[in-house]
Structures are given as C-alpha cells and as structure tokens.
Amino acid sequence: MTSKIGSLVTILWIGLVAGTLDITDNLIFNQAREIIPKMVFQYIASGLIGLTASRGGGLASVSLGVAIHYRIALIWTAVSYAASRKFALLNRRPILSGLVYGAGAYLFMNFVGLPLSAVPPRCEQLRSLQGSTACSLFCSSSGYRLRSWCAETQREHETRPDISG
Fold first, then answer.
1. What's the mean pLDDT in 96-119?
2. pTM of the full predicted structure?
C-alpha cells in the first residue's frame, strides 16, 4: 500500500512540474505574439465547451482550461510512469526515452486529441511546431530524468531497514 501511495505522490509531483514547464513555455511563446494567458486557457477550455462558450465564460472558462491542462499532464505522467515500471529500458535510457515519449505525446495530442475535441483549427500550427516540439521534448525528457531519480530514491527508501522501533 505504501508503494502505491509513493507512486501516486511521484506521479502527482512530476505531473505538476511537467505541466507547469509546458504551460510556461506556451504562455511565453504566446505572449511574444500578444496573446494573453486568459486567452490561452480559454482556448484550452474550448476543447471541451466550444470556442463561443469559452470566450464568454470569463474566469470560469480560464479555470476550466487550467484544470484540463493539468489533468492532461497528470494523465501523460501516469502513462509514462506505468510504462517505466513495465519496460526497464525506459529507466536505463531516460533521456532518449523522454525524447521519444515527448515526440509521441506531442504528435498524439496535436493529430489525434485536438482534432477530436471542439478546439478550432489553428492556422499557425505549423509555424509554432518547431518551438513547441522542442519544449515538449525537453519537458518530457526532464520529467523522465526526474521520474527516474524519484523511482531510485523510492527503491532506496523501501530497502532501508526501519530503525524507528
């Protein structure tokens, strides 16, 4: 039971770090194009409630966009963590695995997830592909490195004798 709680805590922390790195990149990139954070989060929310509702939703649609973003980050982190527990190669080659995983996640989200959502098509998608792909790959490989370190620390903790009693 303790290892399940430890795994959930690890997934939560890494998901929050990866989600924060990812959205920070997105907000900086869009700020340079004069798109404010409110609009970014409303755009994310539009995938669920549609563009018109998200633009008219004010703070509620911004909050929904934040929640959707972090939920997606936590889901990808859980998938990554589960895969790393099943395939030892992912732990032996964390940087390469993170880069491949980041590319896969990016491609899945942009060519499967977004088309299935209510998000309107982005005409600048190809122009922004290079910068956002680089950040996605960096964030994913950093997440893998962090996850590997957390898993190793957790294993060390589980194998230490209990000296409290």
1. 85
2. 0.73
